[in-house]
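User: Working on a comparison across species. This one is DNA-packaging protein from Lysinibacillus boronitolerans JCM 21713 = 10a = NBRC 103108. Can you predict its structure so I can line it up against the others?
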Amino acid sequence: MNVFNMVRSKIPIEQVPDEELLFKVEQVSQTIKTYCNREDIPNELRFVHTNMVIDILTQEIKAKEPSNSMVAKSVKEGDVSVEFGTTTTASEQSTMIILANYTSQLNRFRKLRW
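Assistant: Here's the predicted structure for DNA-packaging protein from Lysinibacillus boronitolerans JCM 21713 = 10a = NBRC 103108:
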């Protein structure tokens, strides 16, 4: 089973269309290749790759919910005033943050460059 199918089995098509899912799989694939200095992704990293894609998509799905996107921007105590703003979207968040959670697993497959 490839990464796309494994992610599709975890995240329904109603939440993420196939085109967006394919884009995220390729984006994470390139991130892994760049970090590991490789031109391929070893089969042993298939589940790591899948989990990274799921983490990114889960963050984006949560960011789309209105309750998660509004934060208190400023609070004034006298005569009580609260100003709300939006957080940054998950698409603005770099995959490098997700990558940091998996570096210990990816380090085993890194190659040195000369």
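For your comparison, note: The mean pLDDT is 83.

User: Helpful, thanks.
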